[in-house]
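The pair is quoted verbatim below.
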Amino acid sequence: MKPKIGIIGDGNVGSALKRGLERAKYEVKNVGHDPKGVEETAAWGEVIILAVPFAALDDTLREMGKAAEGKTLIDVTNALAPDYSLALGCSTSGAEELQKKAPSAKVIKAFNTAFAAHMETGRVKNAAITLFVAGDDEEAKAMVLQMGRNLGFDPVDAGPLQNARWLETLGYFHIQLGYALKMGTEVEFKLIREAA
């Protein structure tokens, strides 16, 4: 049975994930910047997706209250400073810091290395985009890997949550490729690997 998904954030990322998850027959609610709605949506969801700007994470956690306790908390954010430089790197990650702030939640890093335009289908130019999923809770990670598969991505277990350090730097590089180097949002990552 598919879990109910509460998405905190109704911008490009949150909206794309909502459309894709609904198409994949998940029950989904999402909310924008509405403190009461954030708490209600987080309480309703069996899985919570944080699709908010990195700088808004602390406020969002405060608005959720205890609603994330014991639940899978998917961190979609890229750890960017206001000037779009990398806010954290190499020695920790936004996801690891989030886990410290929400110790009873099962934090999973995913979806931050794809552009919002392709999150609904997990595909670009008729090819499945690789979805890297990192986390310390194997059951929660498996659920997110399946969610990605249902959306249309090619999901890959990216190891423990500590590897979010590399997913966040990869997300930053992805933004550099798309915008600073003007390759556009059609550029996505595909991991070529041996068949199991």
